[in-house]
């Protein structure tokens, strides 16, 4: 069995020995087709991509003269650079400061967060990371979200370097540049709640430059801070949250097809939703009048928002 696994990566060595531009960016789908199927661990565990001679997969690219520079599990691709593997005894060495480029060698990660989380989940008696996240993720009630329609509440995009500034996008649309302050306000106001300790507000779809999605109620959820990272780095959690949003609200970002229903979706138990807000516009107006300097209030007065046709002079 071990010999069979080793042989399947011969094709990877042969392909990577061909001329390629550096850095070499390869999708998981390309590698899957090349070797006849990647194991599940390659899709969720960064350790699988370590530059370690003892592993059959890494031996394949090391033999061809390549090292893994980075791996993005969320976007399912790996980036390789040319370099030679060095034994672990060299791990603490550095070249003299002569101006010569440093030699690349393999290093083991100091800690693997995703693996640690998997271990904790199993030890705590949960069936999966997805089950833990679902049980602790709050979405808004569909009747509340429907009052704001399918667009964003405010014309805001993310750019922390210009937060609080008004500007225009390349298409001419006027927006406010912000960090996460306005999406947080939007969620809490729509929930008619205050922020709890150690929580984080997450985007289901990472479209921070899209003013139609960044403050859309259907694109937001709340998790404990210690689980928040999974909402953008754990493939199973990402697909689960996207389907949950679509299942509740029936809205997708422009140009995005309907997400597939995860196989285990029907077994998940979700955190309770806040009660429906009967008059969302009235709640938002009351919040903005009580906090006129909040960025949401500023952009509503100067550009407009979902419940106005232009600058809202009533605020």
From TrEMBL:
InterPro entries: DUF7662
UniProt xrefs under Pfam families: DUF7662
DUF7662 domain location: 9-77
Name of the molecule in the record: Unannotated protein
Species the sequence originates in: freshwater metagenome
Lineage: unclassified sequences, metagenomes, ecological metagenomes
